[in-house]
């Protein structure tokens, strides 16, 4: 008897209906005894009863629809409605009506609940699918394509044609088609696409997974058990024959697994195929006219012995009419497995097994890139995706010259594996580092992990730090060497490339690919700074790319940018100062591009001035890179005012003047910066006299306050010096000399009369570095006074000076006066005037 998939449920439903019809009274009495009386006899009808029943039935419907298969639900609804119908018209029952809907009885709720199950299951399934596809927070599964809509490589056209020809073929023996492709190239997806095109009642589709069988001995038994169960949907009689036939084959003696016996099966016409069972199965399958398509995937996952067993099934023991085999494998691997078992196995052996072998259709050139784009778009920020789409794709992935990044990803599986690895890194440091650098480095790590480790371990060999004056401008550049294969003197290649060429295990294409990625990572040169300030080229961020996290000594670029954008930089400065990140923050502030617009320029310069005070307080007044800041504010050739101030030099001058005017004690940062600006001579937006006026203000504010002539006040005085030139004996030559600013010198003489001059006196003494007993008074100090006697009188008559210090200093003064202050004199300083030896 020939059955289709709907025959058996219809028969069972009919038998169930007949049972209810003929035994309706016993069934009703049984229900009354075990269900109605114990549970519902004492329940009173009413609104609350209705509401509780609604809630219970909804929960049951939700749980059933969510937890059961669609097939189970169809059958439950079918049998349940039959049962409901017979009981609803059964005169045995007296039904009570609902209090909330008097048109319905309580028993009608059973039917309503059943009718809700199927649509509810579709809704829940769709929600589950949406959640699964829309949630990109976790890893991506390397799932094979199961639907034409997911066919990103457009192989469904070829799959459809293969399916069409299978349906048209009339085969007396099995027809085996091999789908050839390397591991991860998409064979499973292609088989699924063929499978999906084989629709209709005339096709029975079976998927057999031999690698799950566990051993060669069980492959045959499990194959025929699966075939028998599936064929039961077509014909129950042939199903039992196949089951019996398979069990008999599984009981063959050990000689059936002998490889010499197997190697002879192709020519053995009197083997298992001559059995009556085999002939009967073959005749019945031919008579049905239905195609049986058996898909066997991942043949190349099996051990050689298991591969042999599958090939034997295809060619001999299951070589039935109307049967098609679709088998996916890497041909090189399978041929190697055959040869490993028998050296005599020829390379054309598979030609005797498979009537047709189809290499996997090649993907289009940009297919992997399109897939990578789609995956990245789901997980990175819009700003980062714009970098990938607008910069990396045109300049790297589609380049056919030096880079060709797409060569890293060779197949669809590579894209999934790369994205899963990249998700981890991007979540950890994606907002701390440059996106382009991160992608390039992760491409290297994905395909060449050993080279990735090499770049980190030997970066001091392959890279050198550009010896720029300013620390914030220093960055790594590739070390270039002469290309030995070139005749041009100017031709250079990276040392990195020459090194990996000598490793010996990389192909020329891989060397070229790696060199392109490396040069794109570290693309700064003598004439070009890396644009992104959190690039891997900058020492401030290099380690983070490999560490995947910030250490306590790392500056967060994410937090820096957030403070920059929100206007909370003052709070961020306080945080960095209290956590020992003041050096890193100053480097990052100095790196910031200040040529965007006037507002941004003034904002950054204000912050540098404000944090500069903290910086010199924590480090020293000489540790700051004043020359770099001078370059930023000097307005060379009116560049700043022309670009940002619409040539309004007065507006720029007011801004700079306000910065120096708003300085706060102890004024060390601003005073030293003015010294460096003044040293450049005329040309700054502030005149020399205006800058000196600021220094005079700093000095007098400090001296006039509680600081008096403190060490900090003396540094302000010293920083207000001016340089001048004295002609030398040779024509055109001159000597560089300096002196204290006259206006500050006049004020200092006033302070020496009534303030404690101890720090000034200490400052004025110079001791010989080799012989600390030798000392003299700085020439520049003596030049402040019209005559030495004027200075001596101020010291001798100062009422605030300690007597011992006064006495010792006057002793030194008098000794030096004997030589007209032209040479050292010997003196053993015992008071605070003695300066301890440094180091």
UniProtKB/TrEMBL annotation:
The chain crosses the membrane at residues 7-27, 47-65, 72-93. Keywords: Membrane, Transmembrane, Transmembrane helix. InterPro entries: KAP_P-loop, NTPase_KAP_P-loop, P-loop_NTPase. It holds the Pfam family KAP_NTPase. The keyword Transmembrane applies. Residues 158-428 form the KAP NTPase domain. PANTHER family: NTPASE KAP FAMILY P-LOOP DOMAIN-CONTAINING PROTEIN 1, NTPASE, KAP FAMILY P-LOOP DOMAIN-CONTAINING 1. This is AAA family ATPase. It comes from Pedobacter fastidiosus.
């Amino acid at each position: 008897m020939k059955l289709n998939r709907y025959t058996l449920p219809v028969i069972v439903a009919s038998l169930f209906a007949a049972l209810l019809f003929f035994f309706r009274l016993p069934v009703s009495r049984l229900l009354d005894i075990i269900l109605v009386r114990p549970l519902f006899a004492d329940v009173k009808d009413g609104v609350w009863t209705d509401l509780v029943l609604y809630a219970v039935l909804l929960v049951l419907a939700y749980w059933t629809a969510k937890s059961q298969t669609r097939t189970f639900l169809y059958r439950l609804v079918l049998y349940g409605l039959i049962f409901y119908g017979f009981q609803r018209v059964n005169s045995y029952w007296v039904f009570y009506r609902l209090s909330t809907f008097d048109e319905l009885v309580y028993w009608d709720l059973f039917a309503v609940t059943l009718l809700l199950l199927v649509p509810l299951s579709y809704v829940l399934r769709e929600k589950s699918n949406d959640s699964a596809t829309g949630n990109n927070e976790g890893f991506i599964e390397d799932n094979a394509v199961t639907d034409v809509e997911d066919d990103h490589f457009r192989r469904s056209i070829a799959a459809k044609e293969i399916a069409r020809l299978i349906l048209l073929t009339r085969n007396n023996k099995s027809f085996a088609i091999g789908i050839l492709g390397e591991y991860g190239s998409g064979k499973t997806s292609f088989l699924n696409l063929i499978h999906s095109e084989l629709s209709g009642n005339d096709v029975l589709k079976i998927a057999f997974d031999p690698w799950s069988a566990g051993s060669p001995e069980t492959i045959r038994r499990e194959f025929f058990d699966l075939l028998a169960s599936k064929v039961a949907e077509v014909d129950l009689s042939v199903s039992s024959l196949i089951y019996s036939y398979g069990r008999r084959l599984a009981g063959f003696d050990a000689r059936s697994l002998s490889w010499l016996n197997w190697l002879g099966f192709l020519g053995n016409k009197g083997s298992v195929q001559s059995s009556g069972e085999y002939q009967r199965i073959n005749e019945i399958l031919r008579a049905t006219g239905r195609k049986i398509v058996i898909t066997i995937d991942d043949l190349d996952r099996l051990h050689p012995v298991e591969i042999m067993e599958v090939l034997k099934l295809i060619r001999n023991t299951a070589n039935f009419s109307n049967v098609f085999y679709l088998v996916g494998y890497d041909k090189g691997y399978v041929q190697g497995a055959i040869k490993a078992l028998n050296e005599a196995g020829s390379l054309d052996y598979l030609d005797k097994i498979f009537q047709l072998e189809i290499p996997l259709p090649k993907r289009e050139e940009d297919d992997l890139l399109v897939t990578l784009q789609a995956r990245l778009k789901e997980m990175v920020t819009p700003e980062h995706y714009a970098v990938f789409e607008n910069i990396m794709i045109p300049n790297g992935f589609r380049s056919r010259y030096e880079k060709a990044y797409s060569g890293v990803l060779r197949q669809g599986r590579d894209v999934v594996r790369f994205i899963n690895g990249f998700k981890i890194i991007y979540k950890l440091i994606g907002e701390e580092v440059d996106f382009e650098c991160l992608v390039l480095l992760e491409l290297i790590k994905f395909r060449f992990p050993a080279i990735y480790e090499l770049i980190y371990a030997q970066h001091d060999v392959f890279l050198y730090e550009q010896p720029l004056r300013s620390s914030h401008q220093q960055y790594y550049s590739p070390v270039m060497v002469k290309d030995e294969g070139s005749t041009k003197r100017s031709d250079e290649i990276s040392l990195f490339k020459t090194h990996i060429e000598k490793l010996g295990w990389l192909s020329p294409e891989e060397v070229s690919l790696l060199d392109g990625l490396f040069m794109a990572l570290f693309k700064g040169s003598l004439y070009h700074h890396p644009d992104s300030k959190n690039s891997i080229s900058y020492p401030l961020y290099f380690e983070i790319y490999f560490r995947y996290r910030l250490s306590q000594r790392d500056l967060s670029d994410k937090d820096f940018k957030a403070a920059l954008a929100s206007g909370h930089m003052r709070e961020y400065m306080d945080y960095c100062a209290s956590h020992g990140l003041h050096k890193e923050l100053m480097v990052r502030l100095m790196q910031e591009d200040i040529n965007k617009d006037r507002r941004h320029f003034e904002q950054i310069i204000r912050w540098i001035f404000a944090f500069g005070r903290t910086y010199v307080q924590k480090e020293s007044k000489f540790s700051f890179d004043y020359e770099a800041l001078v370059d930023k504010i000097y307005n060379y050739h009116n560049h700043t005012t022309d670009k940002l101030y619409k040539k309004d030099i007065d507006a720029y001058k007011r801004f700079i003047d306000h910065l120096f005017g708003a300085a706060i004690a102890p004024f060390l940062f601003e005073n030293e910066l003015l010294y460096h600006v003044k040293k450049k001579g005329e040309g700054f937006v502030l005149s020399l006299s205006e800058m000196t006026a600021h220094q005079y203000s700093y000095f007098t504010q400090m001296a006039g306050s509680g600081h008096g002539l403190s060490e900090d006040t003396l540094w302000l005085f010293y920083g207000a010096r001016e340089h001048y030139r004295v002609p030398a004996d040779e024509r055109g030559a001159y000597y560089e000399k300096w002196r204290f600013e006259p206006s500050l010198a006049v004020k200092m003489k006033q302070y020496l009369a009534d303030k404690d001059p101890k720090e000034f006196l200490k400052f004025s003494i110079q001791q010989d570095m080799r012989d600390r007993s030798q000392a003299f008074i700085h020439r520049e100090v003596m030049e402040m006074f019209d005559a030495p006697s004027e200075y001596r009188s101020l010291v001798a008559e100062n009422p605030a000076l300690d007597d011992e210090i006064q006495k010792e200093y006057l002793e030194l003064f008098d000794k030096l006066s004997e030589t007209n202050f032209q040479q050292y004199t010997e003196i053993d300083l015992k008071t605070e005037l003695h300066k301890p030896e440094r180091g």
